[in-house]
Automatic annotation (TrEMBL), chain A:
<feature type="domain" description="GAF">
    <location>
        <begin position="50"/>
        <end position="197"/>
    </location>
</feature>
<dbReference type="InterPro" id="IPR036890">
    <property type="entry name" value="HATPase_C_sf"/>
</dbReference>
<dbReference type="Pfam" id="PF13581">
    <property type="entry name" value="HATPase_c_2"/>
</dbReference>
<feature type="region of interest" description="Disordered">
    <location>
        <begin position="1"/>
        <end position="29"/>
    </location>
</feature>
<dbReference type="InterPro" id="IPR029016">
    <property type="entry name" value="GAF-like_dom_sf"/>
</dbReference>
<feature type="compositionally biased region" description="Low complexity">
    <location>
        <begin position="6"/>
        <end position="16"/>
    </location>
</feature>
<dbReference type="InterPro" id="IPR052016">
    <property type="entry name" value="Bact_Sigma-Reg"/>
</dbReference>
<dbReference type="Pfam" id="PF07228">
    <property type="entry name" value="SpoIIE"/>
</dbReference>
<dbReference type="InterPro" id="IPR036457">
    <property type="entry name" value="PPM-type-like_dom_sf"/>
</dbReference>
Automatic annotation (TrEMBL), chain B:
<dbReference type="InterPro" id="IPR036513">
    <property type="entry name" value="STAS_dom_sf"/>
</dbReference>
<dbReference type="InterPro" id="IPR003658">
    <property type="entry name" value="Anti-sigma_ant"/>
</dbReference>
<dbReference type="InterPro" id="IPR002645">
    <property type="entry name" value="STAS_dom"/>
</dbReference>
<comment type="similarity">
    <text>Belongs to the anti-sigma-factor antagonist family.</text>
</comment>
<feature type="domain" description="STAS">
    <location>
        <begin position="6"/>
        <end position="113"/>
    </location>
</feature>
<dbReference type="Pfam" id="PF01740">
    <property type="entry name" value="STAS"/>
</dbReference>
<dbReference type="GO" id="GO:0043856">
    <property type="term" value="F:anti-sigma factor antagonist activity"/>
</dbReference>
<protein>
    <recommendedName>
        <fullName>Anti-sigma factor antagonist</fullName>
    </recommendedName>
</protein>
Length: 582, 113
């Protein structure tokens, strides 16, 4: 209603249509009828979110209520300033007619953003007559009202010839001006709804593409596999990919790739390139020939200037040597102790020139680590917005080099994330599997008293939070540790509680180990059995809860008759690999 | 996460007794909780244990509630947990006791149910 009032107030000034005396042949239903018509029209349009339906609803109702021979609705294309007739009712179909802004009375209504009343069309040179001339229809009188919005007119509503033969009056012009207001509003809403739908459709397609891409990335292997890849998309979908696979002869093949450009078509090329490169490497041919084969294949089908940067190679299971070839890929970095070496391997990106010969090289790792970063990493921006380059990536590696694999990957990714990621970033590393050293997270000793429990829970909780363990699992683990300590206090040491409890929490890879030591009399492991849950009994619930929460646990009494060691294990989700394992 | 201090207090309602617990219920004071629950049951009216401000509960706290439940059943009385916090519910679910206890949204329901 607010918009309607505002528009009707504006019509008097902007439209230049002044209320005049009411001719005899005047409206069919009087003031009340007009209001009822406007209210009905507004309501009908308010519930319509379909543009076509909105337009035809408007025109149909106007023809019926105002009793005219013809009515039409033009929409303005703001880019070309052309008015396009979208709906037309009447003896002559002018749907599809296009008029420039300023052309005819329709064009004049938009040009002046004002309602135009032509009482006698035969005496007005501005009237567009092409349709009349070709069909024999006679335009005697017409009114054109602009469809006004805050951002200017978006079209025109036109009525032609009253059915009773009398010319249009200023009252008719005013009424059309009033009708135009809710129509413009409804068209805007319908357009907005359409663009929302379009956005949702795009989002669904992007989600699908992202899932498809993710499904192409291999899962992280935990069995001492020497090749590990991590991918961080900068946007919803990634142009990067990596792959690794085992050959029958025991060698391990690997691929890292980076598609030029962004968006859905780049994502689809990525899917194609990833499967092509995997296929081309499965025979175990030399890396240079591998790239050449993929290149020729891609050249045949890749158009519009897109290309693929890639690095492919093989290593042995112990990662002593790596043989690789690159196509437009940044030099690989090999870190051996404090020394860093860069190895470029020439060759243009894939998909540009068929028949290209690629270079390959073989290097000994000597216990070092081979890092292949897509250029997303070197493109990462520092605080001043400058790309960090290969030197920056080297510094990044150096900062984390001492750490074992999981914390190192975590650290590298966290640093890259903290810097500004402008492109997809993929890291593939090759190194000899090392025995992983446990990372000690908590080490505490406290008196074996119930009053110690609260603080103990706090330190376990904080350590788990720091690891990013999700709250539900965190609370369960805290409960299990608390239950174990409570059992030691109550049953281990007993009422004359004199002694300490030592807690160590360590992480090895993705496994958490909780270790509790006491100096209480030795427990009988056979007596420590979980009872079924769900029973209304008071005793033994603690052990049952521990058993429920942990993957495994055991009590080892010391040989000398005093002292016990309880070890509990729980495997947690890999935090560093979340990007490609979720 | 609630930061209520540990506390237990019995309130006499209209035809029932409500035992309000708050804080972290663990071995260090679960005996007090047990005592308060059993004392409340001694009055012979329905008993509710209000748990909305309990941010942690271990098996010794659960045991006090189990004892209350059993005591009430022996004497034909009513015993329910009222306004159970998420933290308590998680432990009840873990112990598979969430369907064994009567759990009510508010103390008023003690009489209605």
């Amino acid at each position: 209603m607010k918009a309607l009032r505002a528009r009707s107030a504006g019509a008097r000034t902007a439209g230049g249509v002044r209320p005049a005396h009411r001719p005899e042949a005047e409206p069919r239903a009087g003031e009340g009828g007009t209001l009822a018509f406007l209210a009905e029209l507004s309501q009908a349009l308010a519930v319509s979110l379909d543009l076509r339906q909105t337009l035809s609803e408007t025109v149909t109702r106007v023809v019926d209520f105002m009793q005219v021979e013809a009515a039409s609705l033009f929409l303005l294309d703001p880019a070309t300033l052309v008015l396009d007739c979208r709906i037309c009712i009447g003896p002559v179909d002018i749907t599809g007619v296009r008029l420039a802004v300023g052309q005819g009375i329709v064009g004049a209504a938009v040009a002046g953003n004002a309602t135009q009343l032509v009482v006698d069309a035969s005496n007005d040179a501005r009237v567009w007559r092409a349709a009349d001339e070709s069909t024999g229809f006679v335009t005697r009188s017409l009114v054109c009202a602009p469809l006004r919005t805050a951002a200017g007119p978006i079209g025109v509503l036109e009525i032609v010839n009253r059915r009773d033969g009398t010319p249009f009056s200023t009252a008719d012009a005013e009424l059309l001006d009033l009708v135009a207001a809710p129509a413009a509003l409804a068209i805007n809403s319908a357009r907005m709804a359409a663009s929302l739908l379009e956005q949702q459709r795009l989002k669904r397609e992007f989600d699908l593409a992202r899932r498809l891409q993710k499904s192409l990335l291999p899962h992280r292997r935990r069995d001492g596999f020497p090749v590990i890849g991590v991918n961080r998309p900068a946007h919803e979908i990634s142009g990067d990919f990596y792959d690794h696979f085992e050959l029958a002869d025991g060698r391990i093949g690997f691929v890292v790739g980076d598609i030029s450009g962004k968006g859905l078509d780049a994502a689809l090329l990525m899917v194609r390139a990833a499967s092509l490169l995997r296929w081309a490497g499965k025979d175990g041919i030399e890396p240079a020939a591998w790239l050449a084969r993929a290149n020729d294949e891609l050249c045949e089908t890749t158009q519009d200037g897109r290309f693929v940067c890639a690095l492919v190679g093989y290593c042995d299971r112990a990662a002593t040597r790596v043989r690789f070839a690159g196509a437009g890929f940044p030099p690989v970095i090999v870190q051996r102790g404090d020394a860093f070496d860069e190895y470029a391997s020439g060759g243009p990106p894939l998909g540009i020139l068929p028949g290209v010969v690629f270079e390959q090289r073989e290097i000994a790792l000597d216990g070092g680590t081979f890092y292949a970063f897509s250029d997303g990493a070197t493109d990462v921006r520092d605080a001043d917005g400058r790309p960090i380059g290969n030197a920056g990536v080297r510094a990044l590696i150096a900062r984390h080099a001492h750490a074992s694999l999981e914390p190192r990957l975590r650290g590298l990714l966290a640093d890259l994330k903290q810097l500004r990621l402008v492109d997809d970033t993929t890291l593939l590393l090759v190194e000899a599997p090392r025995a992983e050293h446990p990372e000690l997270l908590v080490e505490r000793r406290m008196p074996a008293r119930a009053e110690s429990l609260r603080e103990l829970r706090g330190s376990v909780r904080a350590a788990l939070d720091a690891l990013g363990v999700e709250p539900r699992l965190r609370d369960r683990l805290v409960l299990a540790v608390d239950e174990a300590c409570a059992n030691i206090i109550r049953h281990g040491y007993g009422p004359s509680c004199e002694g300490d409890i030592e807690l160590r929490l360590a992480r090895t890879g993705t496994t958490l180990a909780f270790e509790l030591r006491d100096t209480a009399p030795c427990a009988d492991p056979a007596a420590l059995r979980p009872r079924p849950l769900g029973e209304m009994r008071c005793g033994g619930l603690g052990i049952a809860l521990i058993d429920e929460v942990m993957d495994d646990w055991r009590v080892e009494p010391a040989a000398c008759g005093r002292g016990n060691r309880l070890v509990m294990h729980k495997r947690i989700e890999d935090i560093a690999g979340e990007a490609n394992e979720a | 996460m609630s930061v209520s201090p540990n506390g237990v207090a019995a309130e006499r309602g209209d035809g029932y007794v409500l035992v309000r617990l708050s804080g972290e219920v663990d071995l260090s004071w679960s005996q007090e909780v047990r005592r308060a629950v059993l004392d409340a049951l001694a009055a012979g009216t329905p008993v509710g244990v209000e748990l909305s401000a309990v941010s942690y509960i271990d098996s010794s706290g659960i045991a006090a509630l189990v004892e209350g439940f059993q005591q009430a059943r022996q004497n034909g009385g009513r015993f329910a947990l009222v306004a159970v916090s998420d933290a308590v519910r998680a432990v009840l679910e873990l112990a598979r006791l969430d369907r064994v206890f009567v759990i009510l949204p508010s103390a008023d329901a003690l009489l209605a149910a």
